[in-house]
Automatic annotation (TrEMBL):
UniProt protein name: Enoyl reductase (ER) domain-containing protein
SUPFAM superfamilies reported in the protein's UniProt record: GroES-like, NAD(P)-binding Rossmann-fold domains
Classification via SMART domains: PKS_ER
Species the sequence originates in: Laccaria amethystina LaAM-08-1
Single GO MF annotation: oxidoreductase activity, acting on NAD(P)H
InterPro entries named in the record: ADH-like_N, ER, GroES-like_sf, NAD(P)-bd_dom_sf, Trans-enoyl_RdTase-like
Length: 384
């Protein structure tokens, strides 16, 4: 009889349940991971509430754990290695399984080595949002990457490029600021990073490399950014909701530029300043498989996949200053109690399937339990 495991799977009535399912077997160039920790992303909740494809598929994108078994052709990993990775858990019509289960499968060149100084809980926060940030900066915005990349772009024409990270205290925003802080112009100058966030996060973002941080609730933040920066050259809109992209476009230099957005819809296209171009891309393209997603078929992209491999190798190598850590800091972790069975009742409630701007912010909006306070500047993590 085939071995069995517990996994969180898409169920009828727009929910997910823990079910007894078969343990997957690694195919050629694949590794099986004994999952230790999983991190939550909004897409996990969204496509459980609005399922695509068949029911019964394992949900979940971000995992970390230990290599449990290797498939034929695997040369990069051994049983017992600590890894993290990204799976496309039931987020498209394409039937690819996720990682919220006791065991999961990764392609060997898309697994991330977890350095000794990084916990499994921290490592689980990295794969999806760090790759999204890298794609935004080093593919869509065409900024030369600080690591060997499948994409080669000319350096900026100006010697002090400016980058705006909107909603920088989000998981994506934190990684975007960190990656942008590694950038240097051909003359060796740092890129100038500007950010928006709630005041309670300003000190952290300044410490991560932002030159200045602005309260997005301030009626003068656009004018304040323009005054401080002289005009923005590049921007990443880390929520891409309602008027956010249009407002960001007003901070740009006169010649315009590009904004990386993280949603294909949900943000107002009217009001985007002429000469400023919003650019969307699905992080899943980085896995290199054809997708049926957002009512369209996205062909497999070898170049996006090659970029993912290069970026994950960059992370795996560790920091030049301390090889026991990643070159960028993992997100702050809120370790949630319970395991797979509590994800739907607790984490999905906190993350919601609605826009970030519509999330309740009252401390007791979801009850008085400490772990159910509104999410801000941290990643929800469960141990399996």
């Amino acid at each position: 009889m085939a071995a069995r495991m517990q996994g969180l799977v898409i169920a009828p009535n727009k929910t997910a349940v823990v079910a007894d399912i078969a343990v997957p077997e690694p195919a050629h160039n694949e590794i099986r991971v004994k999952v230790h920790s999983v991190a939550l992303n909004m897409v996990d909740a969204l496509y459980t509430q609005y399922p695509l494809g068949e029911l019964g598929r394992v949900v979940g994108s971000d995992i970390s754990g230990v290599v449990d078994k290797i498939g034929a052709g695997v040369t990069e990993w051994r049983v017992g290695d600590r890894v993290a990775g990204l799976l496309q858990g039931a987020t498209s019509v394409t039937p690819r399984p996720g990682g919220f289960a006791e065991y999961a499968i990764l392609e060997q060149d898309l697994a991330i080595h977890v350095p000794a100084g990084v916990s499994f809980d921290e490592a689980a926060t990295v794969p999806l949002c760090a790759l999204t940030a890298a794609q935004a900066l080093f593919i869509r915005l065409e900024i030369p990457a600080p690591f060997p990349s499948a994409y080669t772009f000319a350096p900026p024409a100006i010697d002090a490029p400016t980058i705006l990270v909107y909603s920088a205290a989000t998981s994506l925003g934190l990684y975007t600021v960190e990656l942008a802080s590694l950038l240097r112009t051909p003359s060796g100058k740092s890129y100038r990073i500007f950010a928006t966030a709630s005041p309670k996060h300003h000190a952290k973002l300044l410490a991560l490399g932002a030159e200045a941080v602005f309260d997005y609730r301030s009626p003068t933040w656009v004018e304040d950014v323009r005054k401080a920066s002289g005009g923005i050259s590049y921007a990443v809109d880390c929520i891409s909701e309602n008027e956010s992209t249009a407002v960001i476009s007003q901070t740009f230099v006169e010649s315009g530029g590009k904004i990386a957005v993280i949603r294909s819809t949900g943000w107002d296209k009217e009001g985007v300043r002429e000469g400023v171009t919003p650019l969307y891309g699905a992080v899943w393209q980085g896995l290199g498989h054809e997708l049926i997603y957002n009512n369209a078929t996205l062909p497999a992209s070898p170049s996006w996949r090659a970029f993912s491999v290069a970026f994950y190798k960059f992370l795996s190598a560790g920091s030049a200053k301390d090889s026991s850590r990643f070159p960028i800091s993992p997100n702050p972790v809120r370790l949630m109690p319970g395991g797979l069975a509590e994800i739907v009742s607790d984490a999905f409630v906190l993350i919601g399937t609605f826009k970030v701007v519509d999330r309740p912010v009252e401390a007791t909006a979801h009850g008085d339990k400490e772990w159910m306070k509104p999410v801000s500047g941290e990643k929800l993590v469960y141990r399996v």
